[in-house]
Design the sequence.
C-alpha cells in the first residue's frame, strides 16, 4: 500500500497499526533500502511502515509487503515528530524504529521472531528495550567509497564505554547510562557531541502522552532504563552503516579517513551469536 503523506496514512491506513510489533523504517537516501526492508520482514514484524521520498525507487516485489508513506526525513526532527504522531495514533503497541542501512539483531533472532522475544519481555514487566547502535563499515573504502558494503562489513570488537547519565542537578539517573564507542568514538572530532551516543531505545510500547525526544530518549524516564531494578533484561543491537556513510559522504571528514579499519576490526558475521559473544546484546533471563 502507498500513501501520499503521513496524514493520509493515519486517515486510511490505520489497519497497519492494529496489531504489533510494528516496524517504522525511515529512508534518508537510496542506500540499501531493499536489504533493510527484507531484513526486518524476516524478523516477523506484523507491519512494516516505510517512510521515504516518492522519488526513491523500491523493488516491486517488496511494495505489496509494506506500507509506503511519502515523507522526506529532512530535517532530522521530522523523524521524531512522525514517531510521536504514530505513538499518539496507536497506543498499546510494540514499535521499533530505524533508518535505512540499519539492521536489528536480538538474541536468537535466527530461530525466534520479534513477537516471541517481545512477549517474553512484556512478561518481565518491561515496556521498552535498550538497543546499542553498532557501527558497521566497509573493509575497503577505495572499493566502497560510501563505506557501505553488507557483504564486506566490519565492526569494532572492543572500544565500547558506559558513563552515568546525569540529571539536571548532576546526579546519576537510576539505571540509565550514556553509551559510546564505534566510529562515533574513534572519529569523535568529526561527530557533534549530541550525536556521539550509541544507545537508542529502538523498541518500545506506545502509550498515551509518551513522546520520543530528539536525543533518542523518551519523556517517561523508565523507558530510558537498561533493565528493571531486580535483574538484567534482554537487550538488542541495531547494526548500522549510518555513521560510516555520513563520515564518508561529508566533505568535512571524508578526506581525513582513508580507512575505518584498525587493530580491533573484525568481519561482521550477520549473526546474533557474534553480538552475544562480544557482549553487545544480552539474553537477560531469556534462554
Sequence:
Amino acid at each position: 500500500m502507498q500513501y501520499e503523506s503521513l496524514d493520509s496514512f493515519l486517515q486510511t491506513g490505520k489497519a497497519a497499526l492494529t496489531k504489533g510489533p510494528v516496524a517504522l523504517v525511515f529512508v534518508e537516501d537510496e542506500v540499501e533500502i531493499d536489504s533493510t526492508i527484507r531484513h526486518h520482514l524476516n524478523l516477523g514484524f506484523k507491519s512494516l511502515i516505510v517512510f521515504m521520498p516518492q522519488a526513491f525507487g523500491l523493488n516491486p516485489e517488496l511494495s505489496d509487503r509494506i506500507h509506503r508513506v511519502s515523507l522526506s526525513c529532512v530535517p532530522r526532527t521530522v523523524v521524531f515528530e512522525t514517531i510521536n504522531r504514530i505513538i499518539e495514533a496507536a497506543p498499546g503497541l510494540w514499535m521499533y524504529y530505524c533508518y535505512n542501512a540499519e539492521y536489528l539483531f536480538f538474541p536468537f533472532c535466527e530461530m525466534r521472531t520479534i513477537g516471541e522475544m517481545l512477549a517474553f519481555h512484556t512478561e518481565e514487566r518491561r515496556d521498552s528495550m535498550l538497543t546499542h547502535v553498532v557501527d558497521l563499515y566497509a573493509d575497503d573504502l577505495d572499493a566502497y567509497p560510501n563505506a557501505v558494503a553488507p557483504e564486506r562489513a566490519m565492526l569494532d570488537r572492543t572500544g565500547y564505554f558506559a558513563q552515568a547519565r546525569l540529571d539536571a542537578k548532576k546526579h546519576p539517573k537510576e539505571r540509565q547510562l550514556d553509551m559510546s564507542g564505534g566510529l562515533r568514538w574513534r572519529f569523535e572530532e568529526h561527530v557533534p557531541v549530541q550525536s556521539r551516543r550509541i544507545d537508542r531505545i529502538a523498541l518500545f510500547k506506545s502509550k498515551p502522552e509518551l513522546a520520543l525526544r530528539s536525543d533518542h530518549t523518551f519523556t517517561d524516564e523508565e523507558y530510558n532504563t537498561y533493565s528493571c531494578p531486580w535483574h538484567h533484561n534482554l537487550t538488542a543491537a541495531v547494526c548500522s552503516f549510518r555513521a560510516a556513510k555520513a563520515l564518508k559522504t561529508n566533505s568535512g571528514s571524508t578526506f581525513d579517513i582513508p580507512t575505518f579499519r584498525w587493530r580491533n576490526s573484525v568481519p561482521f558475521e550477520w549473526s546474533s551469536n557474534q553480538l552475544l559473544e562480544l557482549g553487545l546484546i544480552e539474553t537477560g533471563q531469556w534462554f
Observations:
- The helical segments are 6-12, 33-42, 60-63, 77-89, 114-123, 182-186, 242-249, 272-277.
- Residues 101-287 form one domain.
